[in-house]
C-alpha cells in the first residue's frame, strides 16, 4: 500500500513539474500556442480533400501529398514556411520533369536495359545532388530543396517502371503539393504571422540594451564612490552580457529566413538584413571585452585608494564617466533601432567617449616611470587570467580521462617500442 | 560577335571557379565524396523493390515509402542516420496505432459524425504535438520523430475515411519503412562510417592545440627578447583562436548525434560525451581571454624598456615563461585526448604555471605605490578597449539607419504629441 502511495506521489510531482514547464513555455511566448493551433488548422483544411467526395474523386489518393506537405513545411516563422514551401514546390517540379525525361530515355533502350538504366540514373543524380549539399551556399538556402529533388526524381523514375499513367500521376501530385504549400502560406501569413525579420530586428536591439545594462551597472555599482564591491558575484549586471556571447546561431538562422520574407509592416522587401549580422558580430566582440573585464574585477574586486588617493579618485571618476556615457549611447542606439529612427546623438556621445579615453591615457602617462611598466603589467595581468583559464581546461581533461577510462601511459613499453 | 565572346569567357570563368570550389570541398574531407556515393547506393538498393516482380507484388505501391525513407533519413554521420531512423520507425508505429484507434472510435459514432470527429482528432493531436516541439528536451532529441508522428497519425486517420483495408495498408507501409531504415543503417555503419563521436573527440583536441599555438606564438614572437613587434597583425598566431570562439553550435550538434551511436573503436556506448562540451566551453572562455589580450597587444604593440629596464626584463621573461609553459601543457592535453592516454605531466605543468603567476604578482606588488594604481589602471585599459568596441557598434547602427532608410527624429512633432 505504502509503495503504491509513494509511486503515485512521485508521478504527481513529475506531472506537476511538467505542467509548470509547459505553462511557462506558453507564457514566455504566446505565439507558440498560436503556432500550434495554426498547424492544426492547416491540417484540418487540407484534409477536407478526403472528406468531400467531388474533391477526392478529382485528386484520389494523391490527396495524401497535401497532408504530407503541410506537416513537413509548416514552420514557426513566415520565412521558414516560405523557404520550405518554395523549395518543395520548385524541387518537385524540376525533379518530376527530370524523372519523366529519364523514364523516356530508359524506355527507348529496350525492356531489359530499362531497370539497369533507371538504377544508374538514380544512383548518379542522387550522389551528385547529395554532394552539392556540401557547398555552403546551397546548404544555407536550398538544403531542403535538394532533398525534395532527390526524393521526387527517385520516386518518379523508379515508379515509372510500374505505373502506366505517369503523367497523370505526376500532375495530380504536383497540384496537391501546390495546394498544401498554398494552405500553409495563407495560414502562416494571415493568421497571427511570426516574422523572422522582426524577431531579428528585436533581438539585435535587445542585445544592445543588455550591453548598455552592463556598462550602467559598472558605473553605478562598481566605479561610483559609495559602491560596495564586496558581493560582486551577486550583482546581476555581471551576467547580463553572457547571452549576447552565444547569439550567433540564432541570428544566423533568423537572417537566412528573413531573406525569404516579403515586405511587411515597416520592413521593405530588400531590407538590409545583413547589416544586423554585422551589428551582432560587433556586439559579441564588445561582450567578449566585457567578459575579460568582468572576470578581472571579480577576481580582484578591491579598489584601494593606495598611496596616491588623488590620482586614484581621478581615474575612478573617469572610468565611471566613460561607462555611464557609453551605456547611454548604447541605450539610445537600441531604442533608435526599435523605433527605426536615425540615432541623433549617438555620434555626439561617441565623441564624448573618445575624449574621455584620451583624458584617461593622458592621466596614466603623466608619471613616465609608471606609464612604461603599466603597459607591460596590463599585458601580464591579461595573460594571468588566460593562464588560469587554461588550468581549468587541464582539470576538465583529467576528468574526461577518468570518466572515459583513458589508458595510463606506460614508459617501459614506450622505451621498448623505440629503436 | 564580341559580346558573345565576352559572355562565353564569363561563363567559363564561373564554371572554372565552381569546379575549383567543388574540388576543394572534396579534397578538404574525402568522406564527403564517400557519403554521396553511399546515398546513391542505398537508394539503388531500395529501388530493387520496384524492379523485382515478386518483391513488388508483396509490397505494391507502398515500396515508395522505402525510397522516401532513404532519401529523408540518410545523414552524414552514423548518429544522424540512427537518430532519424529510430525516430521515424518508432513515430510511425505510434502514430499509425493511434490513427487506427481514432478511426475505430470515429466509426462507432456513425457515418455523419465520422468526418467531424476525424477532423477534431487531427486538429487536437497536431496542435498538441506541435506545441511539444517547443519543449527543449523534445526539440533536441525527438524533433524529427514528432513531425513523423503528426504525419503518420494524420495520414492514417484521414485516409481511413476512404481506404477499406486500413490494417493491410498500415502493415505494408510500416514494413517498407523498416526496410528503408535498415538499408540506411547498414550503408551508414558498414560502408566507410562517419562517427559523430569521433569527430567531436578530434574537434575538441584540435581546439586545444589551436589555443596552444596562440600561447606558443606569444612566447616566441612577442615576449622573446629579439621578437619584432612591428608587424603583429601579419602574425598567424593572432588569428588562430578565432575559430575556437565559434565552435559551440558544431560541438552541440555533434554531441547530440554522438549520444545515439553504438560503441565503436575506442569509444564505448556510454562514453562521457557531455564532458567534451565542458572542455569545449572552457576552451571558448580561454579563447575569449586570448581575444582580450590579442586586441590589447595589437592596439599597443610597443614594449619599451622604459625607466626601469631590469623590472621590465623581469616581467617580460616571466610572461614568456608562463605562455610557453601553458602552451606545452595544452599541447600535451591535446595529444593525450587524441591518444586517449591519461595526461601524465599536465598537472605538474599546471603547478609550474601557478608558481609563475604567483612570482609575477610578487614582482608587481614590490613597489607599493605602483601596485595600487596598477590594478585600477588595468581595469581602465580593459574598459577603454570595451568602449572603443562600443563605438564601432554606433558606426554600424548608423550604417543600418542609412541602408534601411530610418526616419529622422522630428523634435517639433514630438513636442506637439506630448500633452
UniProtKB/TrEMBL annotation, chains A, B:
Any single GO BP term: monoatomic ion transmembrane transport
Subcellular localization, as worded in the UniProt entry: Membrane
Keywords annotated in UniProt: Ion channel, Ion transport, Membrane, Transmembrane, Transmembrane helix, Transport
Record's bilayer topology term: Multi-pass membrane protein
GO cellular component terms, semicolon-separated: membrane
Family note: Belongs to the aromatic acid exporter (TC 2.A.85) family.
Protein name: Aluminum-activated malate transporter
